[in-house]
């Protein structure tokens, strides 16, 4: 089934060092669409990342405004998550990825996601 | 232990009941306070002070009861009475030193400690307080633009980097250890600290599941602010910067805040 997210996922996946890109429903952590390398369990990663996104949203609800981006930096890689309201784009990075470039790609994809959601 | 406390209370109660002029009410009030029965301790002390209005130890004890009830101003009033009646009351002087240290009022604590040292130069408790003051372990001055009794540790950062909105140092339970967040009130800070500690736990879970290794940090960004969460051992330092602050400067603020937090925590644990 074509979800319409194929192009924006491909844009993120073409960045060197990106092991997975997924569109995730923030409320329940379900994968709407995604591309992952072998070894990355997208469904579980999406569920956990969505929980983090919700928690981060709660943390900023007192005054910092709605969050638009979350990044987790770990010793062996990173995850980035960005999105409008109901859905967000999740990217899983290896250490060799250029975080600045991927960040831009993720933000761009999130903007497209927002535009698509707004058009629905 | 429980039995001996109860017996002691019974004995004291009997004495106070049989002799309304007895000053044993002070000891009895202290025993009630130690058991957490602050209401009864306070009533007893106030009633005893009607008969013995210049009883120094009764005023001192009433101050301790007020302090235990969280009524700091009333406690200070009582200890003020003690010092009017007995300027050399060492326990009151030391209580004030402790109170000032707790509140981060180091200069007041120092002045009070110096008075205590002239009263009882050999008292071993003086050395403990002197050690705390000299090692800088006491919390910082309460006064300041943070407005919540904290903020000294990170104060210079906010001044040097105008794009810094605030800095929190939070322990593993979400309790704020230090803060410099002038624009926010305490409740907002506390909520932010707790929620971000929980977000950190979620981040660790994701990193662990994806086999990304140990968490180095986390960034949460809204339209107006970027919150950077960096672990310092079991604690975390949270730096809020404006999103329009250049990334290099923001990274510098985060690094400096981390260094200050690490140094502050090392001093605390030394």
Automatic annotation (TrEMBL), chain A:
Boundaries of every Roadblock/LAMTOR2 domain copy: 5-94
Pfam families registered for this protein in UniProt: Robl_LC7
Highest taxon, organism lineage: Bacteria
SMART domains: Robl_LC7
The protein's name in its UniProt record: Roadblock/LAMTOR2 domain-containing protein
Organism of this sequence: Candidatus Kutchimonas denitrificans
Automatic annotation (TrEMBL), chain B:
Gene3D superfamilies the UniProt entry points to: Dynein light chain 2a, cytoplasmic, Tetratricopeptide repeat domain
InterPro entries linked: Roadblock/LAMTOR2_dom, TPR-like_helical_dom_sf, TPR_rpt
Keyword check for Membrane: no
Repeat positions for TPR: 22-55, 56-89
Domain spans labelled Roadblock/LAMTOR2: 159-240
Keywords: TPR repeat
Pfam families associated with the record: Robl_LC7, TPR_14
Keyword Flavoprotein included in the entry's annotation: no
Protein name in UniProt: Tetratricopeptide repeat protein
Annotated source species: Candidatus Kutchimonas denitrificans
